[in-house]
Amino acid sequence: MSAAEDRTLYYGKDDVYIYRTFVPPLYASSQIPESPFVRRSNVVFGVNVRVCVGGEAFLPSFTEGDNSMVVATDSMKNFLQRHMATYQGITIDGFLSFVGERLLTTYPQMSWVELYATQVPFDPVDVPSPNGFTESGLVFRRSRNECATASVKMVRGERGEPVVVDHWSGITDLQLIKVVGNSFVGFVRDEYTTLPEDPNRPLFVFLNMRWRYNNPADALLPDPTAYVPAEQIRDIACTVFHETATVSIQNLIYRIGCAVLRRFPHLAEIRFESQNRTWDTVVESIPESPGKVYTEPRPPYGFQGLSITREDVVSAPSA
Ligand SMILES: O=c1[nH]c(=O)c2[nH]c(=O)[nH]c2[nH]1
């Protein structure tokens, strides 16, 4: 790598929204015990993409104001949007690798390209039919819940051909509350400690997860037979949370990670970023009810990060 490529030098476009209708559905390649997920309809395939490119050829645009090699970020936006029409696959990851490959093939001045996308999810709505309720197929509800993510980095191989060097699938902004059955005790008590031990707290966590495959082709080929839909990872997280008497968020994310890697042996690693958003209690007891009253926690908030690989799974507890 040359000195120019070693330095931070990139440009691109963010918040490139693209919606394509009637992409063929994505089916789960296998049914798993933790999830009822069968298929993502893809009737509305929505993504918000960030494209970022770099290369020595762009240095003069910074140092000399020479735009002769500059592909306008406005053109990048058009490139992404128009290529959505010719994408033959059914996943966000596949779209990113398709368009990344096309960018490097079209513009020799680009040495590398990084693409990141979050899904813009639209959920099917059910409407009355003679046999009860069925999916409308026409009307969809914009979901403000968690969404799938993907990122792909491509460089040039020895003959200049595009090569994927980094690929992650993910899910962002999964927000889960477990109302009872969580403790947090046994932590350091010293002159700075005011938090009481809590044998049974409600636990509200925000989770970002991303995972990579042993073989990225499992996810990136047009017909990805070993693709793991984000919905199944989400449902494993929910199941582990449900089944575990949690002792901390640290231990919860470790258990979720091990469960995911155990369920999908072709995944190499999963990474977590979690936040503790547990509510503050306002009313401790309500007569003749197991309930309490809570409010938003006061800032600041705590967070955790963890990466789990196959080596961890060998030694992990299975429950
Ligand atoms: O699950 C938790 N982990 C912590 O490290 C921590 N710290 C804290 O104040 N509450 C919590 N909860």
From TrEMBL:
Pfam families cross-referenced by the UniProt entry: Uricase
Keyword vocabulary terms for this entry: Oxidoreductase, Purine metabolism
GO terms for MF: urate oxidase activity
Catalytic activity: urate + O2 + H2O = 5-hydroxyisourate + H2O2
Residues that, per the record, bind 5-hydroxyisourate: T73, D74, F184, R201, Q250, N276
Residue sites binding O2 per the record: T73, N276
Pathway info: Purine metabolism; urate degradation; (S)-allantoin from urate: step 1/3
Keyword Cell membrane in record: no
Residues binding urate: T73, D74, F184, R201, Q250, N276
KW Transferase (keyword) present: no
Enzyme class: oxidoreductase
EC nos: 1.7.3.3
Gene Ontology terms: biological process: purine nucleobase catabolic process; urate catabolic process
Known role: Catalyzes the oxidation of uric acid to 5-hydroxyisourate, which is further processed to form (S)-allantoin.
Family: Belongs to the uricase family.
Entry-linked PANTHER family: URICASE
Listed name of the protein: Uricase
